[in-house]
Design goal:
alpha+beta; Immunoglobulin-like; six-stranded mixed sheet; three-stranded antiparallel sheet; 2 helices; 9 strands; 20% helix
Length: 220
């Protein structure tokens, strides 16, 4: 009997405690702003880790071997003693034309004559080249005083080895003293060739002594 009573008492107490405890509301946990920030950062970092793990690692590529490059060097330009570039000299073109002065047929050097005196200068020339002088070749003054002389144009061919006289009518200038004019032959392309003989006279007053008379040699 006492045991039954003790059991009833214990049961009653237990039920009472359970009823009292069931009416209490469980406490709400307090979350700070720092906890929220920490949680957000942790979540973002975890996402980055998972994304990086999902990206495949690129396969290693081989670096291409360097290729040889042709380097252009500057063209050599010859310089003179002062360091100025010198123009390239081309090889002279061989010409088959040749001319040699043989002698003065008339009016030898230093012939004395009065101012304004008319005379004819004649040279004896020889074709020393391998080609004939062609009609159209010109005998013309290239320096000094022409003394009124005009260009002479050949009207016939002069064969290699042949001699030929060229005559030019002239007039002594009025200037006193030694006067010279240099002449030369030109081909059909305007290229000079051969010797360049001249005519040289001494112009003086007619009253001067030992003035030789000037006799023109007939033109052949």
């Amino acid at each position: 009997m006492p045991r039954i009573k003790l059991t009833l008492i214990l049961t009653t107490v237990a039920l009472t405690l359970a009823a009292c405890g069931g009416n209490q509301t469980p406490p709400v946990p307090t979350i700070s702003i720092a906890d929220v920030q920490t949680l957000a950062v942790s979540t973002f970092a975890a996402g980055l880790t998972q994304t990086a793990a999902a990206i495949p690692t690129p396969a290693a590529t081989e670096t291409p071997a360097p290729t040889n490059t042709i380097v252009a060097f500057n063209t050599f330009v010859p310089l003179n003693g002062s360091g100025t570039p010198v123009a390239a000299v081309s090889s002279p073109t061989t010409s088959c034309n040749g001319l040699e002065f043989i002698n003065d047929v008339s009016i030898p050097d230093n012939t004395k004559m009065a101012p304004g005196k008319k005379f004819t200068k004649t040279w004896l020339l020889q074709n020393t080249g391998g080609c004939a002088w062609q009609p159209g070749f010109k005998w013309t003054v290239v320096g000094g005083d022409p003394m009124g002389g005009s260009t002479v144009t050949l009207t016939q061919a002069i064969n290699p080895g042949a001699q030929y006289q060229i005559s030019v009518p002239m007039i002594a200038p009025t200037t006193l003293g030694t006067i010279r004019g240099t002449w030369r032959m030109f081909d059909l392309n305007g290229n000079p060739f051969g010797d360049a003989p001249w005519v040289q006279i001494v112009v003086q007053n007619p009253a001067a002594s030992n003035t030789p008379s000037v006799t023109d040699t007939p033109t052949p």
